[in-house]
TrEMBL record:
Its cofactor is pyridoxal 5'-phosphate. This is Branched-chain amino acid aminotransferase. The lineage of its organism: Bacteria, Bacillati, Actinomycetota, Actinomycetes, Pseudonocardiales. GO terms for molecular function: branched-chain-amino-acid transaminase activity. Pfam families: Aminotran_4 (PF01063). Keywords: Aminotransferase, Pyridoxal phosphate, Transferase. GO terms for biological process: branched-chain amino acid metabolic process. Belongs to the class-IV pyridoxal-phosphate-dependent aminotransferase family. SUPFAM superfamilies: D-aminoacid aminotransferase-like PLP-dependent enzymes.
C-alpha cells in the first residue's frame, strides 16, 4: 500500500516527498538512520496509538545513540503524530517515525546538526487469522556486538531483508533466524513464542533478540492470565516437540504459525494461542 500523501517533517506537515534526503546523504549510502513503527488503530471515531509513548521513547533513544541528535522531544514527536493522524483517512494505519540525514554528506564524519525527523503513515489491515509459515532461515541474526538490535538502525535491517527474501524464494512467508551460536532468535521482523508442556516459552533477551513492545505486551497478558512464562535459550531441535507457535510484532500483531520448516502445527486452534490473540485484540480495539 502507498504511504500517506503528507508527512510530519521537522515540526510541520508537508507533502511527503518534501522530506526526501539528498542522493548524497549517508543515510542512503551507509544506512545511517533510525526508525520505529507504531500501530494507530481506528476504533469507532477515535485513534488508539497503541503504546505510542514507549515506541517514541525507544525511537528517540536510538536516534541519540546513532548521533542523530533529536531536535524534538518525545512529547513533540507524539504531537506531530497527532497532527499527521488528522490528515489521514479514518482507518487503521502503521505509523513510521524516522531520524535520518537529508544533507549531501556522504562520508562517516558529518555535521551532527544535520539530522532530520519525519513521520509518515501507511494504511494497513489488522486481526489477520490466516496461519503463517516460517523457513528455518539460512541467514543468521546479526550479532548485537556488531549493531545493537534495540537501536533499530536502518542499515541493520538488510539482515532481516535477506532472511525474508530467502524465505519467500523457498515458499514460506518469513524466515526464523538463529543467532551466531545456533539458538533460535527471532523472525525477520517479529519475536517468536512457543507453547510447550512447560508453558509459554520465548527466547530470552540476551542482546541478539529484539526487545519488542508487542513481545512485552504478550508477556504481560500471559502473566495476568496465570500462564507459566519461560524466557530461555531455545534450540532448533526443540521445534519438533512444541505444541504451537506464534510470531508477534507491531505490524504483524499476533500471527499463529502453521509451519516452521518441516514441522507443522495447528496453532490457530490451540487454546493458549487463542487466549493470547483474544486478549491482545481486546487491548487494540479499546
Amino acid at each position: 500500500m502507498r504511504a500517506s500523501e503528507h508527512a510530519w517533517f521537522n515540526g510541520r506537515i508537508v507533502p511527503r516527498e518534501r522530506a526526501d534526503p539528498s542522493v548524497a546523504s549517508n543515510t542512503l549510502h551507509l544506512g545511517i538512520s533510525v526508525f520505529d513503527g507504531i500501530m494507530a488503530y481506528r476504533n469507532g471515531g477515535a485513534w488508539n496509538l497503541h503504546r505510542g509513548r514507549e515506541h517514541v521513547e525507544r525511537f528517540h533513544a536510538g536516534a541519540a545513540r546513532m548521533g542523530l541528535r533529536p531536535g524534538w522531544t518525545v512529547d513533540q514527536v507524539l504531537d506531530g503524530i497527532g497532527e499527521l493522524l488528522g490528515t489521514l483517512p479514518a482507518r487503521t494505519h502503521y505509523i513510521r517515525p524516522i531520524a535520518y540525514r537529508t544533507a549531501p554528506e556522504v562520508f562517516f564524519h558529518v555535521d551532527n546538526d544535520s539530522a532530520s525527523f519525519a513521520v509518515f503513515a501507511v494504511p494497513v489491515g489488522r486481526d489477520a487469522d490466516d496461519p503463517y509459515t516460517c523457513q528455518l532461515s539460512p541467514i543468521r541474526r546479526v550479532s548485537h556486538h556488531a549493531i545493537p538490535a534495540s537501536w533499530k538502525v536502518s542499515g541493520a535491517y538488510a539482515n532481516s531483508f535477506l532472511a525474508e527474501e530467502a524465505a519467500r524464494a523457498a515458499g514460506f512467508d518469513t524466515g526464523l533466524m538463529l543467532d551466531q551460536r545456533g539458538r533460535v532468535a527471532e523472525a525477520s521482523s517479529s519475536n517468536v513464542f512457543f507453547v510447550t508442556a512447560d508453558g509459554l516459552v520465548t527466547p530470552r533477551l540476551d542482546g541478539d533478540v529484539f526487545p519488542g513492545i508487542t513481545r512485552a505486551t504478550i508477556l504481560e497478558i500471559a502473566r495476568r492470565s496465570d500462564l507459566a512464562v519461560i524466557e530461555r535459550d531455545v534450540w532448533p531441535a526443540e521445534l519438533a516437540s512444541v505444541e504451537a507457535a506464534l510470531l508477534c510484532g507491531t505490524l504483524s500483531e499476533i500471527r499463529h504459525l502453521g509451519r516452521i520448516g518441516d514441522h507443522r502445527y495447528d496453532s490457530g486452534n490451540h487454546p493458549v494461542v487463542r487466549r493470547l490473540i483474544d486478549q491482545f485484540r481486546s487491548l487494540t480495539h479499546a
